[in-house]
Amino acid sequence: MKQPPSEEPDESLTVAPPKKWAAGVPAVTHALQYSLEETSVLRTGRTLLTMNQVDGIDCPGCAWADPAPGHRHRNEYCENGAKHINDEATTRRITADFFRRHPVSELGRRSDLWLNQQGRLTEPMVKRPDSDHYEPISWHDAMGLISEELKALDSPDEAVFYTSGRVSNEAAFVLQLFARAFGTNNLPDCSNMCHESSGFALHETLGTGKGTVSLEDLYHADLIFLVGQNPGTNHPRQLSALERAKANGARIIAVNTLPEAGLMRFKNPQEIRGVLGRGVQIADRFLHIRSGGDLALFQALNRLLLEAEDARPGTVLAHDFIRANTSGFEEFARHARTLAWEHVLAATGLTRDEIENVRDEVLRSRRVIVCWAMGVTQQRHAVPTIREIVNFLLLRGNLGRAGAGACPVRGHSNVQGDRTMGIWEQMPDSFLDALQREFGFDPPRAHGLDSVDSIKAMREGRIKVFLGVAGNFVRAAPDSAVTEDAMRQCRLTAHISTKLNRSHTVCGRTALILPTLGRTERDFQATGEQFVTVENSMSEVHTSRGRLEPASKVLLSEVAILCRLARRTLDGRTGIPWDTFEADYGAIRDRISRIVPGLHDFNRRVIRAGGIRLPNPVNEGVYPTPVGKALFTCNAWEMSHAPEGHLLLQTLRSHDQWNTIPYTENDRYRGIHGSRRVVLVNPRDVSRLGLAEGQRVDLVSVWSDGAERRTEGFEVVPYPTTPGCAAAYYPETNVLLPLDSVAETSNQPTAKGIVVRLEPTVMSTV
Amino acid sequence: MQTVEETIEVAVPVSTAYNQWTQFKSFPRFASVVKRVEQIRPNLTHWVIGFGPVRHEFNAEIVEQEPDSLVAWRSLDRRSRHGGEVSFRATAPDRTAIVVRLRFEPHGVGGRLARSTGFTRRVIRTELGHFKEYIEGLGQESGTWRGVIRNGHVLPSEPEPPRSRVAHWPVG
């Protein structure tokens, strides 16, 4: 067993120039170095060599699709995936003794990094009211404690059941079934905070919430947009797909506020030329856009395409496609023509030449794909932006055709699958009716609470019990101080977790840690060894089988914990066979196959190499909107505006981080080492605001409620962000993000475009 | 760009010939050079072609498809550019003329071989013979897909084909 560090890292900041390329040999050495710090050579080999292979472990990291069976590398993973899987496979262990030595109040002062470094949770723990320590509790008593609290509620709607994207399809299905059989649709999830805007915009305009492209489309596109996305850090395997697309002649346009290394050049460590050569240039054009300017950019492109059609009628727009498959074109076109260039240039920070050059690229391309991530979805006007991207794709028939389409790049391995399984507070009646037919109970019909509304309800005392399955809700959520205060209002908080995080330290009156198997671990139940299934960002559903011995003999799987809890709580009120589900996950998949459209014959089909490729109706020429056609939309916008002396802040992840968990204090590609309390500011803004490199500042956000949200002691790092735009690390800066600052329609917290001012830190407060 | 055209007449009705031809996944049943076909979507297919120990893979887009009339494709790989049409015409109620027109860009050693020896023409002629033997022997098609594809887009033949019945709710 490896020993965790006992003290917090104590390094000072050093800043080097940002890297101009991603991956290469350093990616391999960093991945191996971290893996071997956490676990043995043997376990590292066992995890890495089975990772993302047919019959292997699905990387619990991002949701990027795997190449087709027979076309996968022996090492089919990225640096961050390798770190992440071995972060779970660590041989460090947290025992009851750890909690005797560390009171909850002390753990609450520890960093995310330190908490994660302590290793795997190994036995159920409880923090009782008025105690400052977690202490051991048996599984039986833990289940009893939670079920008694649930049964004592005045209404099932006083509980929320949160899901993180690591949760398997089987566990997600059981969780939503339990919640609905218990009587509530309060099923917030991490989707609420990452791609909710994509789901709403695509569902409204195309009738389906999922992306339309597969890897084969990316390989054969003529032109690929990467908008608000940093693939080098957040989806590194996408770079291999982009490399292949480029070899096949694709052009790539990156649209971002930061010139990320992964957008510039990629050295594929799987290839000799990537190890020895200069690598492949990724972006042919880089649009250094102002934060939130994407809507104006795509609207301008759409106007330019309409004008190009005017100049050469019948040569630019896909008239047959528009006529046969879309609705609302005329109104959209009228609206698009009213766009004022001065507004576009102000909102984007780009020149007209730059935008017209992009138009020319579009006109030269038969197949266009637009990829986007949280640089788009976490803006206030994210939903209209994505609707405008759909307009852009529709104009030239770039939907439903090979090598073209919409590609929301999701960030967490099963975040899409969990939603397919019914983890959503607003599930349609068709799904609830199917549940009713299958299980014979009446699921609640009133919509439940999403993440933001759950926090509000907790703050107001309307939620008494919080159950989190995986994840780190407290750190992922916005407005950290408000969220933490809300969690502390709960009567009981319980987390099904593999590792320690801050959500265990910011807890209700009673708190439970329910330690669970990781995805890397073998899962034995009464009928034998089990596998689970997941769905990637390209709608491929496949198996994941753990290979390692569990971190502790008393760990239960997520499915087992949920089934036991459901059985204890519901007391046989329904005929749901929780015992059978726990014993045989195939029995769960049988039920899923009868409830979730597209997953018929689930057990038989999912074990084929590569699994099940869920079709996207758009690719079948079907647009399941109310009018049966894709919708053109008219999207109004207001420019993101920072008053004089302020900047637009975006939160972002470092390269050495996975979701809320930093692995080190470094961010290699951006040249930041030794500290995460930095704010990246354009050099012009540094001097304009009278600041200096290395100066310590407090970040203070401005919001209409007048409340002061401040985080102290950040070092100013001059960095080539777009002028007027700054960046700082998530989750440390979530404290600046007002709970009420959400995207229109989707209610997704806006972690981009936060108006902040930088105030010199008063030294005594540091 | 080289062009090769070959015709064959098969003794089955045009709909039978068309239906069987468009069951692309069954090509390895009769075509000796086709080792595997994956139909990724109605308008996107992946082909594995083999000559002896040599394997060649490519993706092909179905650009046009009209029941009982035409299938037109084009390869999507830059290094192996080809495309063409297969047309179906009833010459009698139970007889169909099938014309394969292939356009390709000779590429590499294999391409030079194809250009100098008429190799491609012979392969197509042989495989058409295999298809004739296969469909006439079966007498009826093993499956059908009657959708229409225009300019790479599927026009559905019914409001919602079964394959597209998947979860439609928003995905966050």
From TrEMBL, chain A:
Transmembrane segments: none annotated. Residues 120-521 form the Molybdopterin oxidoreductase domain. Keywords: 4Fe-4S, Iron, Iron-sulfur, Metal-binding, Molybdenum, Oxidoreductase. This is FdhF/YdeP family oxidoreductase. Belongs to the prokaryotic molybdopterin-containing oxidoreductase family. It comes from the Bacteria. NCBIfam families: Fdhalpha-like (TIGR01701). InterPro entries: Asp_de-COase-like_dom_sf, MopB_CT_YdeP, MoPterin_dinucl-bd_dom, Mopterin_OxRdtase, Mopterin_OxRdtse_a_bac, Prok_molybdopt-oxidoreductase, YdeP_MopB. Residues 647-753 form the Molybdopterin dinucleotide-binding domain. Its cofactor is Mo-bis(molybdopterin guanine dinucleotide); [4Fe-4S] cluster. Pfam families: Molybdopterin (PF00384), Molydop_binding (PF01568).
TrEMBL record, chain B:
InterPro entries: COQ10_START (IPR005031), ORF3 (IPR047137), START-like_dom_sf (IPR023393). It comes from the Bacteria. Residues 10-108 form the Coenzyme Q-binding protein COQ10 START domain. PANTHER family: POLYKETIDE CYCLASE/DEHYDRASE AND LIPID TRANSPORT SUPERFAMILY PROTEIN, POLYKETIDE CYCLASE_DEHYDRASE AND LIPID TRANSPORT SUPERFAMILY PROTEIN. This is SRPBCC family protein. It comes from Streptomyces viridiviolaceus.
